[in-house]
Amino acid sequence: MSKPSIQNLMDEVTERVKSTTTFADSGFQCFNLQDLTSWRESGAALPMAGIAYEGSDIPDREIDTHKQSRGSRSVNTQSVKISVIIGVDYRGAGGPDTKVTALALLQEVRDVLHGYSNVNHRPWTFIGEQPLDGDEEGVIFYGQLWATDIHLTGNHTAQ
Asked: How confident is the prediction for the chain on average, in pLDDT?
């Protein structure tokens, strides 16, 4: 079995988010919140979801400070992090409370993504969520952070 690429993992999260009724036509891969805001400014409808790569790391507990023997093979776990950014319509005082809608959409994404595994055979884990500072008038953004682990392998040969 080959290791999935970051793009494979991005595609998987995008597919899961777009499997919801809400985001079937408004789920996009994006670079960051500003990129998602550009989609909105070009006419994308609300609510919308953007899927962005947030980076990866090797958990501290797995960093091996020992030198590898010649011809050895090492395996670490690489934690890949992807965010789901949700944008919803926001009305100020006097309008309906759109936080209720936003919270329901955050739950909808958690329901389809938490524990899901396919391309990687390891489940997606919910890390957290929070409101995001966006500059677009009439839109409020929330971000969720998700992680999955992939094997990071390497062969060490004599040089």
From this structure: 85
Are 124 and 51 in contact, with CB atoms under 8 Å apart?
Answer: no
Look at residues 51, 54, 47, 52 and name the one whose alpha carbon lies nearest to residue 17. Answer: 51
Does residue 62 fall inside a structural domain? Answer: no
Q: Give the whole-angstrom CA distance, residue 13 versus residue 65.
A: 33
- Structural domain includes residue 157: no
Tell me how many domains the chain contains: 1
First-residue to last-residue Cα distance in the chain: 28
Question: Which DSSP state fits 30?
Answer: -
Half-sphere exposure of 63 (CA within 13 A, CB side): 5
Does some domain include residue 95?
A: yes
Instruction: Give pTM, 2 decimals.
Output: 0.84
Residues of the chain with pLDDT under 70: 1-2, 60-75, 92-93, 153-159
Residue 65 lies in a domain: no
- Please report where in the chains the tokens 């971000």 appear, as a residue: 143
pLDDT digits (tens, 9 = 90+) for 88-112: 988 766 777 778 889 999 999 999 9
> Which residue segment(s) compose the domain that 41 sits in?
6-55+79-149
